Amino acid sequence: MVDLPQLDRIRDTLAEQWDRALDRTVRVAVTGLSQSGKTVFITSLINQLLNPERLPHLQAAAEERILASRLQTLPELRVPEFPYAENIAAMSGASPHWPAPTDRVRAARVALRARIQRRLLPDSEQTIYVDIIDYPGEWLLDLPLLELSYEQWSRQVQVQCEQEPRRSLAREWLDFVASVDPAAAVDEELIRRGQALYVDFLQRCKNSEHVLSYLQPGRFVLPGDLAGAPILAFFPLPSSDAAKYDKHSLHTTLRARYEAYKEQVVRRFYKEEFSRFDRQIVLVDVLKALHHGPATFRDMQEAIGVVLQSFNYGKSGLLNRLFKNKIDKLLFAATKADHVADNQHTALRMLLESLVSDAARELRFQGIDLATLAIASVRCTRTVGAQVQGRTLSCLEGVTKDSDRSRILFPGEVPEAVPSEDAWGRDRFNFLEYRLPRFEALERSALPHIRLDQALQFLIGDKLA
To answer: Could you tell me if residue 168 is inside a domain?
Structure first.
């Protein structure tokens, strides 16, 4: 006998498949590593869609064919709603501040009532659903673990820790691992100690001056609802001869828990959230990588390449929409473009292209429609001209993170390609963070942004044509 919740799930699935068959739903994956600005981006994206009159580069909006829009609840009620109203309140209050970062999967649906143009047929009014899925960037880096055995992963971590800055950051954990006998009997206290030291190492990587991104498992850094769960009680333990350990050994126990984590957490996350995307935007904080130096830049580049291997890319069509979705449009976006002057945006976009060039080359070969943009989800500064030593330079006016008043500063220049080691050594790249300006009545107006309308045109413009 089928219970009522199961009937509801079947009904929702059939309704979603019907909308997909009619090409009325576009599911957008917002991908980004930790601190790339996903939460603010999604908040601003929803805000723009609810106020489409100020999106000149979104063709349907410019032609006044978007008749109405509203925020709706997704049919899949198990997924918590994205906290749009709370985020807008935080950003527009008496003391505006950035909203809290993502700590679990959340989703939002914006319904757009639009006049759709059809060849050889009269225009018709239709509702297009834009589903936006948010998830912690830390969890993305778990997906490649599905292809790695426990021994392969442990060896990978060991190799990473042979290079700086990880070698110094991992010193206490490496000393502990060196003292552990993989063949020894299981000792839960030792396992808890090893896991705590490994988590501390990952947190050091994330929060140190290097701000590293390639951290696995992601749930060790941001556990969400798994905080304190026994399934997280493991750590990498490199070993030269894993086959010789019996079933009661420490190594065998750690391997079993790693495999359980892969199957019960990572694979479930992948199946539930990653099998139905149509479009994807990858947010990259290029300026942060420049600011923190070559180790951070290379680590971010490697992490992005690894993450992209976990998505399904390919041409979309009716059968794909019904049975196996593939991402057919991918946008790489350099975030926080408002932290440099307007005349540096082209260089910022070119640097992003250089950073993702290897991954982009393979995706273009697969026929994916791919683009790059320099964007700002919320514009916090304005570009002004200022006289410096007899020269007029493009500077920024805004309130920096460590100040309480507006200042005019020269933000520096962005290289068009990956800098040499020598260029980094001269402390050339020192991009500042800026505070939110005061906003009013955001429930009735749009946040100031840079090129979010161009991003929307690329991601969903064809659905509104």
So the answer is: yes
**Predicted local confidence at residue 149, as pLDDT:** 95
- Does pLDDT of 426 surpass 90? no
| Distance (Å) of CA 100 to CA 37, 78, 109, 244 | 11, 21, 20, 47
Number of domains in the chain: 3
Q: What is the pTM of this model?
A: 0.88
CB 432 within 8 A of CB 412: no
- Could you tell me if 190 and 259 lie in one domain? yes
Which amino acid would we find at residue 460? I
- Quote the strand ranges of 121-275, DSSP E: 121-134
State the Cα–Cα distance between residues 449 and 141, nearest whole angstrom.
29
Same domain, 23 and 130: yes
Residue 434 domain-assigned?
no
Range of the domain at 266: 142-270
In a shared domain, residues 203 and 262: yes
Report CA dihedral (22, 280, 326, 464) to the nearest 10 degrees: 20
**Cα gap 129→460, rounded to integer Å:** 10
Q: What is the CATH number of the domain that holds 314?
A: 3.40.50.300
Determine the Cα–Cα distance for residues 233 and 309; give it in Å rounded to an integer: 27
Question: So what's the pLDDT on residue 242?
Answer: 67
Beta strands 106-118 and 369-374 are: unpaired
Q: Are residues 264 and 400 in the same domain?
A: no
- For tokens 């493991």, the residue is 234
The string of pLDDT tens digits covering residues 435-463 is: 998 876 565 678 999 999 999 999 999 99
How many other CB atoms sit within 10 Å of the CB of residue 72?
14
Tell me if 431 is assigned to some domain: no
| Separation CA 343–CA 293 (nearest Å) | 23
Q: Which amino acid is at 371?
A: A
